[in-house]
Amino acid sequence: MTAASAPEARATVRALVLDADDRLLLQRYLDPTVRRPGGRPHRVPVWIAPGGGLAPGETAAAGLERELREETGLIGVAWGAWLWRRTVDLHYHGRLLRFVEHYRLGRVAAAAPRVAPTSLDPQERGALLGHRWWRLSDLRAATEAVYPPRLAARLAAALPGPPSGAVVDISHEG
Predict the structure, then answer these.
(1) Is domain 3-173 in CATH 3.90.79.10, yes or no?
(2) What pTM, to 2 d.p., does this model score?
(3) Which of 174, 158, 165 has its CA nearest to residue 24?
(4) Which of 26, 40, 64, 96 registers the highest number of CB atoms within 10 A of its CB?
(5) CA dihedral over 79, 85, 88, 94, signed as positive or negative
(6) What ranges do the domains of the chain cover?
(7) How far is CA 124 from the centre of its chain?
(8) pLDDT, tens only, 83-100
């Protein structure tokens, strides 16, 4: 890759929020400007964990709380461990970016609390199509694309007990 085509790094955080019944909150997302290098733009929605890019000088923890509040309205999450790291290059709104995503586990006390975005920018308003609380069994059987790959299996492995504390790099999975 030449210096002119080198991707710009974008630090990103994602929330793996579980409700009182161990359902995972995901958001349905479709942004036709997003594509992998050499790939075609997405034409169908995907399911992703809430989150987004960090502002300059913002810590990962503060950015995650801000993104979750903006995209879902949820506050008061009991945060757990940072579980995974995923690096993926994507064309995003005309720029080649290297997304460096960090995933953190969190819990809310209620069962499937109401989700309502509080502060979306115009791009997010057009791309965010809704939210759903997923049972792991439904997530395993999903026919729509879910990112990161193997989300249900990875999350199921993390739930029985506290993780080792080591953040696992899942970049090789796509």
Answers:
(1) yes
(2) 0.91
(3) 158
(4) 64
(5) positive
(6) 3-173
(7) 14
(8) 999 999 998 888 899 999
